[in-house]
Amino acid sequence: MQFTTKFALKFSLFNLLIVALLGLLMRYKIGFEFPFLDQKHLQHSHSHFAFTGWVSHTLIVLLIYFLQKKIVNFDSQKYTKIIIANLISAYGLLIFFFIEGYGTFSIFFSTLSIAVACIFGYYYFKDLKLIDTNSLSKNWFKAAIFFNIFSSFGTFALAYMMITKNIHQEEYLASIYYYLHFQYNGWFFFACMGLLFDLLNLKSTENPFFKMSFKLFFIACIPAYFLSTLWWDLIPNWVYVVTVISAFIQVFAWFKLLSILIKTKLNILQNYPFFLRYILLFVGFALSVKFILQLGSTIPALSQLTFGFRPIVIAYLHLVLLAVISLFLLFYIYANHFFYINKQIKSGIIIFSIGVLLNEVVLAVQGIASFSYTVIPYVNEMLFGAAIILVFGIGTTVYFSIKKGNIHPLL
User: Fold this and answer.
1) In angstroms, rounded to a whole number, what is the distance separating the alpha carbons of residues 372 and 68?
2) Cα–Cα distance for residue pair 137/194, rounded to 1 Å
3) The 3-state secondary structure of 247-286, one letter per residue
4) Residue 224 DSSP label
């Protein structure tokens, strides 16, 4: 079976809708009486499918598309099998985490997803050697694959704790944050940056900082993990110093790169419809906030507060996954004309972005209020409302993107 990017991306959009529906179900269960489902099982199903079925699937497809563009007579058959295997693992995680939480089958499919990531990484590294060395995206993609595999150590640690029933709170949280960090700030971030560099056709001859930015982010990524563990009393002082430096490096690298792109590449954005420019602006702002928040979390007192209140952690995770990664992927999919854009799709993506914004605002207000143990009235109902908007927005986008025989000219 021949690999086709558009067909594979239909699964991406459909999977994102499933993620949003699970999020809506979780919000309903929190805000109203619904005793028939285990909230923890729902949470694991939601998060694992979001990572594997939505983000990882989409990134794998788009990274293969990058090879298709660059390599003459590209053979995609091995990658088709990898995509199918990844989807099988994603739906296995969706179903069995929903049914049993951490159990025999969910751990099996989790292990399968890691095996798929390793096999994909092996073949992708080999094929990247065929790409022109002048392509700046290559290093971003290599690093993304490395961090994707590297993050699996956190999963293995969690599985070991669950199987042996030997769970210590500090090690448990450290393992979760290890996995999340190298997925969010490694695999997701570096892959998206590689896609952005390719989309904008950035070259080191245009500005030497384009090449330097990768080195700075790569150097900072591993020590930046300890930003998630500053609450742990066992962290030595020298690790804290290195962690603070890594946070400064990321802030400098991002804002320096952003200023160069605004000065040199802003004209390229004029080729895109207004709503796509708006989405990219949204992503850029959210990513800027993310790096500033990371730097702020190096203040010890603030770090203890931040990781001590669940709404703050959830707000940060959704800021990265929804406002940065998910919206960027939607931008990239429609900016590359994989689907024709009609008014309904345009409205759907804008509504989805409004849902993302409302979700973040409510979570942020709830998190800040929790510092003083202030209860925000109707906060669960407001989050449920934001979840409805998210589902409606992505549902509209999915329906009109995959609907057959409804092709419209690009707006």
Assistant:
1) 54
2) 4
3) HHHHHHHHHHHHHHHHHHHHHHHHHCCHHHHHHHHHHHHH
4) G
Instruction: State both tokens at 398.
Output: 């999915």
Copy the structure tokens of residue 221.
Answer: 């990524």
Q: What is the pLDDT of residue 168?
A: 72
Longest dimension (CA), the chain: 62
- The pLDDT, as a whole number, for residue 410 is 42
- Distance, CA of 411 to CA of 405 (rounded, Å): 18
- Overall pTM > 0.85: yes
What do you get for the CA distance between the two ends of the chain, in Å?
32
Q: Check residue 171 and give its pLDDT.
A: 78
The region, left, alpha or beta by phi > 0 then psi within -120 to 50, assigned to residue 373 is left
216-243 residues labelled b (16+ CB within 10 A) or e (exposed) = bbbebbbbbbbbbbbbbeeeeeeeeebb
Taking alpha carbons only, the member of 141, 279, 137 closest to residue 200 is: 137
pLDDT computed for residue 306 by the predictor: 64
pLDDT at 53: 96
What amino acid occupies position 8? A
Question: Which stretches of the chain score pLDDT less than 50?
Answer: 1, 405-411
Tokens of 44: 């694991």
Of 23, 310, 63, nearest in space to 173 by CA: 310
